[in-house]
Structures are given as C-alpha cells and as structure tokens.
Amino acid sequence: MSEVFIQLAFRTSIIAFIVNIAIAMYGVYTRPSLIKKFICLIMFTDAINLFALFIGFRVVNNTYPKPPVLIREPVSPGELEEFKYIAVDPLPQALVLTAIVISLAVFMFVIGLILVYYEHYGTTSIKAMRSGGVEEVFE
Amino acid sequence: MIKRDVLVAFSLSLLVLSISLIIWLEGYIRIATPIISSLGESYLYYSYNPWYSNYTSFSLNVVSAIIWDYRGFDTFLETTVLMASIIAIYTLLRGFEEKVFLQPKGLSTITKTATKIVIPLIIAYALAIATHGQLTPGGGFQGGATLAVISSLIIAVYSLEFLYYMGYRSKRLVVIRGLCLIGLIIVAITPLLIGFILNTKSYIFQNMSKEDSFISMPSFLFDAPLAGSIFFYNVFELLIVFTGLTTALMLLSLRDVELKKAFEVREVYE
After folding, report:
1. CB contact under 8 A, A98 and B74
2. Domains in chain A: how many in total?
3. Which residue in A7, A101, A120 is closest to B78 by CB distance?
4. Is residue A85 part of a domain?
C-alpha cells in the first residue's frame, strides 16, 4: 500500500517538474524582457537538477532510505553491506553539485551581459532594442 | 505575435503531455525502485572501507569522496570554469574604477545591528560546513556559498563602501583566488613529488594508497577521519568560492560613478 502511494506521489511530482520545465521554456522563448528570460532559465536548470536527483532515489522495503553519509565509522563489513542496500544513489547528487556550480558561473556572466545591454540601450526588452532602444515597452 | 505565442504554448503543453505519458507507461525511467546504479553501489561500499584499503578514500560522506577523490579532475576543471566566468565579467566591465570616498549610505541602525549579530553565526556555520565536508553533508562549495552570503548582506545593508573600508578590492580577491587554485594544484601533485623523491610509482590527484603505489595522504587527524586530500581541497575550495562570489557581487553592484568610465571607453572603441 505504502509503495503504491510513494509511486503515485513521485509521478505527480515528476509531472509537476515537467510542467515547470514547460513554463520555463515558454518564458525563455516568448517573453521580450531579458530579466524574465533569465529568471526562466534559472527555473529551467533547477527543475532539471531536481529531476536528476529524483532518478537517484530508491525505495527500501520496511525502512526509510538513508542519505549517502555514514553516521559513524563502520565496525564490520556487514554494516557496509547493509548501508549499500539502504542509502540512495550518491552519483546523481555529485553530478548535480557540479552542474549547479557551472550553471552559477554561466549565470554570473549572463547577468553581467544583461547589465551591459541595459547600460547601452536603456532597456532590457529585446523588442525595444530592435527598434533602436530608449522607448519603453510595457510587457 | 499573439498567434505565435498561442502556438508556442500549445506545442509546449503537447510536450508535457507526451513526456508524462512516456513516464507513466513505466520502464523508460527508473524512479523510486529498490535498484540503483551499480556504480553508485560500489561508491557507497568503498567510500569508507578499511578492509579494502586500496579502493577507499576514508571519507564518511560519499558525495564528497566522489567529488574530490574518485572524480577529482572534473571538480578541478569546474573550479577553473568559475574562475573563467569571473574573468569574463571583468572583460565585460573593463575600464571601471573603484572609488573609495563616496558618501556611504545604508539601511537603518536596527538592520545594521541585526546584521552584526548574524554575521559571526554565518561565518562559524560556513567554516563548519567546509571543514566537516568529509564527515557530514556539505563541502567546500556549499561552505563558500554560505560565506558569500555575508558579502551580499554587507552590500545590501551597509553599502559597497563598507566592503572597500574593510580592505576588499576585486583585484586583491582575484589574486587570492589564483593563489588558492595554485594551492589546489600543489595538493594534487604532492603525491607525485613524493613518489619522484622516493623513486616509486604515484599518480596526480592520488589520495590513498593504490595497488602499485604505497603513497597516501594523512587519513586521520588524531581520531577524526581527515580523508586525506579531501580536507585540504575543501578548505581551498571554500576560499575560492567565497572570493569568487564576492568578486562577482562587487562587480555587479558597482555604482554609476564607478562604471561611467567603463562605458565611455567602450563607446570610443565602437
């Protein structure tokens, strides 16, 4: 019973992630404001990273899954065998950490680029930029 | 334009429906099952395993062991990417000058006092996260990001002037960053140098002893697991991320007076 509930909850949240990704892509493609595009890009990466974390999750019979951290130093190899079958997958977590750092580096550059655009054109809307800048477009 | 927006929204909703259908039909993606990847299982088994001393890294935190030991070179390159992005922001805003004696402004005294109380707590927490990276969830990057909260708080509450007053300059921070990167490289090639002196085989980014080389970094400090080079990497990464994020925050919150020359210079070139 509980396993069925967990599966249902997981699938619902995965669909929520996909909807999140779709909204973020909509923002990136159609919004004219660069700041809004940037926010949607952040939403996109966060949704993808959470999705990757979900792949590493596991369901364990009768107990709850544990984080991939040993609480104390193991005294026998049997303890490690048990830990191996209870803990969640550490690999997606490590990869997501790398992905977060690199996306942070990219976003820092992008926000600097937007700052320069704003200073040059006086607006962050790409529609106004195309028509020569300065004029305000409320969208 | 409206027609195009509707078309994009419709196609994206179709994408949502199709991907959810694929996941619903099961078997295409493995989520919330008792099985995980065998590579992940082997990391879980060997991360702290005194009975297989050739494969272990003596790190209780498996994620830390993967990041700095099993896949250390990846993480080193990731750190250099962070450095490269700072240099990219520098080239974007080239020609800016840091003016120290502008009139400092800030928020009210209540906010300033509350910030003063909070800042030592943040420092202690960030240091604990970074130096216990091999024992508890956390690590150098997380600690550095926590520490960078301080500089963003100071910029927001006390103004950028206060950071200048404390001696922070973006050029100094970049120098510290470079020194810490060199420190990372030195820790990485230490086993190589020792192997060269003792005339035995050894590897770059080597942590514990391997089958064909007995050189290993210190695995214990008194009775606490130090996890060899992971501790040193975490400390250097803390400084790198803190200085990097602080530099970015300072560059992105420069005042108009300081940026004026940068944009004038660009207009001349264009």
Report:
1. yes
2. 1
3. A101
4. yes
CB contact under 8 Å between A19 and B16, yes or no, is yes
Interface of B with A in 164-193 (CB under 8 A): none
Q: Which residues of B touch A48 (CB under 8 A)?
A: none
Could B35 and A90 be called an inter-chain contact, meaning their C-beta atoms sit closer than 8 Å? no
Q: Which residues form the domain of A9?
A: 2-130
Name the residue ranges covered by the structural domains of chain B. Answer: 60-269
The reply to whether B43 touches chain A by the CB within 8 Å rule is yes
Residue A41 has pLDDT above 90, yes or no: yes
Shortest Cα distance, chain B CAs vs residue A131, angstroms:
16
Biggest CA–CA distance in chain B, Å, is 73
pLDDT, tens digit (0-9, with 9 covering 90-100), for B149-159: 999 999 999 88
Q: Is residue A137 part of a domain?
A: no
A58 contacts B35? CB cut-off 8 A: yes
Q: Best interface-test mutation with A: which of B85, B90, B266 has the largest number of A CBs within 10 A?
A: B85
Q: What is the mean pLDDT of residues B176-186?
A: 92
CA distance B246 to B30: 40
The answer as to whether A135 is a domain residue is no
Q: Is residue A136 part of a domain?
A: no
Q: Is B20 on the interface with A (CB under 8 A)?
A: yes
Q: Chain centroid to CA A137: how far?
A: 31
Q: What is the pLDDT of residues B212-257, one digit of tens each?
A: 888 888 878 878 888 888 899 999 999 999 999 999 999 988 888 8
